[in-house]
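Good morning C.,

I know you're traveling, so I'll keep this short. The sequence:
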Amino acid sequence: MTLPVPNDLAQEIADRIAAGQYKSEEDFVRAAVEALRRQDTELAAIEEGIAAWREGRVSDLDEFSAELRKEFGWEEDK
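The tokens, ready to paste straight into the viewer:
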């Protein structure tokens, strides 16, 4: 697949390859798509959290902290 890329972006990609950040244009595109996937996952988690908050499915901070300490075996704050 060949993708048209504006000159300014093509230059940035070439500069990053020349600087050793990426081995090739393919590596750059792969990293960009992976970053977009992570961003999509994070956005979905944020949206889920907002929906839970709006629906009242939340715990207060002390309860949440106690649950985490119990789950991971962390000591109580002294």
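Safe travels,
E.
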